[in-house]
Amino acid sequence: MMEVLILPQDVAAELVARHILTLIQHKPDAVLGLATGSTPLPVYRALERLIAEWEVDTSRVRGFALDEYVGLPEGHPQSYRAVITREVIEPLRLTPSQIRVPNGATETIKDAPAEYEAEIAASGGVDLQLLGLGGNGHIGFNEPGSSLGSSTRVKTLTAQTRHDNARFFPSEDEVPRHCITQGVSTILKARHLVLLAFGESKAQAVAAAVEGPISASNPASALQLHPHTTVLVDEAAARHLSNAEYYASSYRNKPDWQAL
Protein backbone atom coordinates (compact mmCIF):
# COMPACT_ATOMS: atom_id res chain seq x y z
CA MET A 1 0.00 0.00 0.00
CA MET A 2 1.20 3.51 -0.79
CA GLU A 3 2.14 5.74 2.12
CA VAL A 4 -0.50 8.48 2.09
CA LEU A 5 -0.13 11.63 4.19
CA ILE A 6 -3.06 14.03 4.53
CA LEU A 7 -1.65 17.45 5.37
CA PRO A 8 -2.17 21.13 4.55
CA GLN A 9 -0.20 22.07 1.46
CA ASP A 10 2.30 24.27 3.29
CA VAL A 11 3.02 21.56 5.87
CA ALA A 12 3.43 18.95 3.14
CA ALA A 13 5.84 21.20 1.22
CA GLU A 14 7.95 21.78 4.32
CA LEU A 15 8.07 18.05 5.09
CA VAL A 16 9.16 17.15 1.57
CA ALA A 17 11.78 19.92 1.47
CA ARG A 18 13.28 18.77 4.76
CA HIS A 19 13.36 15.20 3.52
CA ILE A 20 15.14 16.24 0.31
CA LEU A 21 17.75 18.24 2.20
CA THR A 22 18.34 15.37 4.62
CA LEU A 23 18.91 13.16 1.56
CA ILE A 24 21.43 15.66 0.18
CA GLN A 25 23.23 15.87 3.51
CA HIS A 26 23.66 12.09 3.53
CA LYS A 27 24.32 11.85 -0.22
CA PRO A 28 25.78 15.12 -1.56
CA ASP A 29 25.57 13.91 -5.17
CA ALA A 30 21.90 12.94 -4.88
CA VAL A 31 19.93 12.76 -8.12
CA LEU A 32 16.54 14.48 -8.00
CA GLY A 33 13.63 14.11 -10.38
CA LEU A 34 12.01 17.49 -10.93
CA ALA A 35 8.40 18.23 -11.78
CA THR A 36 7.13 21.53 -13.15
CA GLY A 37 3.72 23.16 -12.79
CA SER A 38 2.21 24.94 -9.80
CA THR A 39 1.99 21.94 -7.45
CA PRO A 40 5.71 21.56 -6.55
CA LEU A 41 6.37 25.31 -6.27
CA PRO A 42 5.86 25.44 -2.47
CA VAL A 43 8.43 22.62 -2.13
CA TYR A 44 10.97 24.58 -4.16
CA ARG A 45 10.33 27.74 -2.12
CA ALA A 46 10.76 25.78 1.13
CA LEU A 47 13.97 24.28 -0.25
CA GLU A 48 15.29 27.74 -1.12
CA ARG A 49 14.71 28.94 2.43
CA LEU A 50 16.06 25.82 4.14
CA ILE A 51 19.20 25.62 1.99
CA ALA A 52 20.13 29.07 3.33
CA GLU A 53 19.13 28.24 6.91
CA TRP A 54 20.89 24.87 7.01
CA GLU A 55 23.83 26.05 4.88
CA VAL A 56 23.51 22.98 2.67
CA ASP A 57 26.05 22.56 -0.15
CA THR A 58 24.12 21.73 -3.35
CA SER A 59 27.10 21.92 -5.71
CA ARG A 60 27.10 18.17 -6.40
CA VAL A 61 23.35 17.65 -6.68
CA ARG A 62 22.08 16.53 -10.06
CA GLY A 63 18.57 16.59 -11.44
CA PHE A 64 16.38 15.45 -14.33
CA ALA A 65 13.20 17.15 -15.44
CA LEU A 66 10.21 14.99 -16.27
CA ASP A 67 9.33 16.47 -19.62
CA GLU A 68 9.61 19.24 -22.18
CA TYR A 69 7.48 20.69 -24.96
CA VAL A 70 8.48 19.86 -28.51
CA GLY A 71 9.15 22.71 -30.92
CA LEU A 72 9.38 25.76 -28.67
CA PRO A 73 12.27 28.03 -29.68
CA GLU A 74 15.32 28.10 -27.42
CA GLY A 75 14.79 30.58 -24.59
CA HIS A 76 11.00 30.52 -24.79
CA PRO A 77 9.79 31.55 -21.31
CA GLN A 78 7.34 28.64 -21.09
CA SER A 79 9.78 25.94 -22.12
CA TYR A 80 10.41 23.69 -19.17
CA ARG A 81 14.12 24.45 -19.41
CA ALA A 82 13.26 28.11 -18.74
CA VAL A 83 10.79 27.19 -15.99
CA ILE A 84 13.30 24.91 -14.27
CA THR A 85 15.94 27.65 -14.48
CA ARG A 86 13.61 30.21 -12.84
CA GLU A 87 12.05 27.95 -10.22
CA VAL A 88 14.81 25.50 -9.35
CA ILE A 89 18.30 26.21 -10.68
CA GLU A 90 18.62 29.84 -9.63
CA PRO A 91 16.77 29.71 -6.26
CA LEU A 92 18.53 26.50 -5.15
CA ARG A 93 22.02 27.76 -5.98
CA LEU A 94 22.55 25.24 -8.76
CA THR A 95 24.17 25.64 -12.15
CA PRO A 96 22.52 24.79 -15.49
CA SER A 97 24.95 21.90 -16.01
CA GLN A 98 23.58 20.16 -12.89
CA ILE A 99 20.06 19.84 -14.29
CA ARG A 100 19.12 17.96 -17.43
CA VAL A 101 15.91 18.63 -19.37
CA PRO A 102 14.71 16.53 -22.33
CA ASN A 103 15.70 18.04 -25.68
CA GLY A 104 12.53 19.18 -27.41
CA ALA A 105 14.21 20.57 -30.54
CA THR A 106 12.37 19.24 -33.59
CA GLU A 107 15.53 18.70 -35.62
CA THR A 108 16.96 16.20 -33.09
CA ILE A 109 13.75 14.83 -31.59
CA LYS A 110 14.18 11.39 -33.17
CA ASP A 111 17.22 10.61 -31.02
CA ALA A 112 16.29 12.65 -27.94
CA PRO A 113 14.31 9.97 -26.01
CA ALA A 114 17.08 7.35 -26.13
CA GLU A 115 19.70 9.97 -25.26
CA TYR A 116 17.72 11.07 -22.20
CA GLU A 117 17.25 7.49 -21.00
CA ALA A 118 21.01 6.99 -21.35
CA GLU A 119 21.76 10.15 -19.35
CA ILE A 120 19.51 9.05 -16.49
CA ALA A 121 21.10 5.59 -16.44
CA ALA A 122 24.61 7.06 -16.50
CA SER A 123 23.79 9.18 -13.43
CA GLY A 124 23.12 6.05 -11.39
CA GLY A 125 19.38 6.64 -11.39
CA VAL A 126 17.03 9.07 -9.65
CA ASP A 127 17.03 8.98 -5.84
CA LEU A 128 13.82 10.94 -5.33
CA GLN A 129 11.26 11.82 -7.98
CA LEU A 130 8.79 14.64 -7.37
CA LEU A 131 5.49 14.21 -9.20
CA GLY A 132 2.36 16.25 -9.68
CA LEU A 133 -0.95 14.67 -10.67
CA GLY A 134 -3.15 15.67 -13.57
CA GLY A 135 -6.90 15.77 -13.14
CA ASN A 136 -7.12 12.86 -15.58
CA GLY A 137 -4.47 10.87 -13.73
CA HIS A 138 -1.48 11.75 -15.86
CA ILE A 139 2.04 11.87 -14.43
CA GLY A 140 4.64 13.70 -16.43
CA PHE A 141 2.94 13.90 -19.81
CA ASN A 142 1.85 10.27 -19.67
CA GLU A 143 -1.79 10.77 -20.56
CA PRO A 144 -4.54 8.14 -20.06
CA GLY A 145 -3.85 5.21 -22.35
CA SER A 146 -0.08 5.45 -21.95
CA SER A 147 1.70 2.14 -21.64
CA LEU A 148 2.70 1.39 -18.07
CA GLY A 149 5.90 -0.09 -19.50
CA SER A 150 6.79 3.02 -21.49
CA SER A 151 10.18 4.72 -21.53
CA THR A 152 11.00 8.31 -22.51
CA ARG A 153 9.25 9.16 -25.77
CA VAL A 154 7.39 11.80 -27.78
CA LYS A 155 3.68 12.09 -27.00
CA THR A 156 0.70 14.03 -28.34
CA LEU A 157 -0.91 16.20 -25.68
CA THR A 158 -4.63 15.76 -25.07
CA ALA A 159 -7.01 18.64 -25.64
CA GLN A 160 -7.65 18.79 -21.89
CA THR A 161 -3.97 19.10 -21.01
CA ARG A 162 -3.45 21.79 -23.64
CA HIS A 163 -6.48 23.64 -22.24
CA ASP A 164 -5.14 23.32 -18.68
CA ASN A 165 -1.74 24.69 -19.75
CA ALA A 166 -3.15 27.52 -21.84
CA ARG A 167 -2.99 29.84 -18.83
CA PHE A 168 0.79 29.97 -19.32
CA PHE A 169 0.54 31.04 -22.97
CA PRO A 170 -1.01 34.05 -24.76
CA SER A 171 -3.65 31.72 -26.23
CA GLU A 172 -4.52 28.03 -26.33
CA ASP A 173 -3.50 27.92 -29.98
CA GLU A 174 0.09 28.62 -28.92
CA VAL A 175 0.31 25.64 -26.56
CA PRO A 176 2.48 22.99 -28.25
CA ARG A 177 0.74 19.84 -29.41
CA HIS A 178 3.60 17.47 -28.65
CA CYS A 179 6.01 16.84 -25.81
CA ILE A 180 8.87 14.58 -24.85
CA THR A 181 8.28 12.90 -21.51
CA GLN A 182 9.79 10.31 -19.25
CA GLY A 183 7.70 7.16 -19.54
CA VAL A 184 5.85 5.44 -16.73
CA SER A 185 8.50 2.73 -16.58
CA THR A 186 11.23 5.37 -16.43
CA ILE A 187 9.51 7.10 -13.52
CA LEU A 188 9.10 3.80 -11.66
CA LYS A 189 12.88 3.26 -11.73
CA ALA A 190 13.40 6.12 -9.25
CA ARG A 191 14.17 4.87 -5.75
CA HIS A 192 11.56 7.04 -4.01
CA LEU A 193 8.46 8.54 -5.62
CA VAL A 194 6.79 11.55 -3.98
CA LEU A 195 3.41 12.47 -5.45
CA LEU A 196 1.79 15.80 -4.53
CA ALA A 197 -1.87 16.68 -5.14
CA PHE A 198 -3.93 19.44 -3.58
CA GLY A 199 -7.46 20.75 -3.99
CA GLU A 200 -10.85 19.22 -4.69
CA SER A 201 -10.22 19.17 -8.44
CA LYS A 202 -7.66 16.40 -7.88
CA ALA A 203 -9.80 14.28 -5.54
CA GLN A 204 -11.11 11.83 -8.15
CA ALA A 205 -7.67 11.34 -9.66
CA VAL A 206 -6.13 10.79 -6.22
CA ALA A 207 -8.68 8.14 -5.30
CA ALA A 208 -8.20 6.36 -8.62
CA ALA A 209 -4.41 6.47 -8.32
CA VAL A 210 -4.23 5.30 -4.71
CA GLU A 211 -7.18 2.93 -4.33
CA GLY A 212 -8.36 2.16 -7.86
CA PRO A 213 -7.29 -0.68 -10.13
CA ILE A 214 -3.91 -0.44 -11.83
CA SER A 215 -4.76 0.63 -15.35
CA ALA A 216 -3.34 2.53 -18.30
CA SER A 217 -6.54 4.58 -18.10
CA ASN A 218 -5.05 6.15 -14.97
CA PRO A 219 -1.27 6.23 -15.41
CA ALA A 220 -0.69 7.36 -11.81
CA SER A 221 -2.18 4.07 -10.60
CA ALA A 222 1.09 2.42 -11.69
CA LEU A 223 2.71 4.02 -8.64
CA GLN A 224 0.99 1.30 -6.60
CA LEU A 225 3.58 -1.08 -8.06
CA HIS A 226 6.49 0.86 -6.58
CA PRO A 227 8.01 -0.28 -3.26
CA HIS A 228 8.48 3.27 -1.96
CA THR A 229 5.79 5.74 -2.99
CA THR A 230 4.69 8.60 -0.73
CA VAL A 231 1.52 10.51 -1.60
CA LEU A 232 0.92 13.89 0.06
CA VAL A 233 -2.56 15.39 -0.27
CA ASP A 234 -4.68 17.91 1.58
CA GLU A 235 -8.14 17.14 2.94
CA ALA A 236 -9.86 18.39 -0.21
CA ALA A 237 -7.83 16.10 -2.46
CA ALA A 238 -8.36 13.20 -0.04
CA ARG A 239 -12.14 13.51 0.12
CA HIS A 240 -12.83 10.43 -2.04
CA LEU A 241 -10.30 8.15 -0.33
CA SER A 242 -12.15 5.36 1.45
CA ASN A 243 -9.20 4.79 3.80
CA ALA A 244 -8.59 8.46 4.63
CA GLU A 245 -8.90 7.99 8.39
CA TYR A 246 -6.39 5.15 8.34
CA TYR A 247 -3.91 7.28 6.40
CA ALA A 248 -4.35 10.17 8.82
CA SER A 249 -3.87 8.01 11.90
CA SER A 250 -0.85 6.26 10.39
CA TYR A 251 0.93 9.60 9.99
CA ARG A 252 0.01 10.78 13.49
CA ASN A 253 1.64 7.69 14.97
CA LYS A 254 4.99 8.19 13.23
CA PRO A 255 7.95 10.33 14.30
CA ASP A 256 8.80 13.09 11.83
CA TRP A 257 11.97 11.40 10.61
CA GLN A 258 9.95 8.37 9.53
CA ALA A 259 7.14 10.27 7.80
CA LEU A 260 8.45 9.86 4.26
Automatic annotation (TrEMBL):
Coiled coil regions, renumbered to chain: none
EC number: 3.5.99.6
InterPro entries reported in the protein's UniProt record: Glc/Gal-6P_isomerase (IPR006148), Glucosamine6P_isomerase (IPR004547), Glucosamine6P_isomerase_CS (IPR018321), NagB/RpiA_transferase-like (IPR037171)
CDD domains xrefs: GlcN6P_deaminase
Active-site residues annotated for this sequence: 67, 136, 138, 143
Enzyme class at the top of the EC tree: hydrolase
Keyword Hydrolase on entry: yes
Residues marked Part of the allosteric site (site): 146, 153, 155-156
Activity regulation description: Allosterically activated by N-acetylglucosamine 6-phosphate (GlcNAc6P).
Matches recorded under PROSITE patterns: GLC_GALNAC_ISOMERASE
Catalytic activity entry: alpha-D-glucosamine 6-phosphate + H2O = beta-D-fructose 6-phosphate + NH4(+)
Listed GO MF terms: glucosamine-6-phosphate deaminase activity
Keywords: Allosteric enzyme, Carbohydrate metabolism, Hydrolase
Domain Glucosamine/galactosamine-6-phosphate isomerase: 12-225
Pathway: Amino-sugar metabolism; N-acetylneuraminate degradation; D-fructose 6-phosphate from N-acetylneuraminate: step 5/5
PANTHER family for the chain: GLUCOSAMINE-6-PHOSPHATE ISOMERASE (PTHR11280)
Job description of the protein: Catalyzes the reversible isomerization-deamination of glucosamine 6-phosphate (GlcN6P) to form fructose 6-phosphate (Fru6P) and ammonium ion.
Annotated family: Belongs to the glucosamine/galactosamine-6-phosphate isomerase family. NagB subfamily.
Protein name: Glucosamine-6-phosphate deaminase
Gene assigned in the entry: nagB
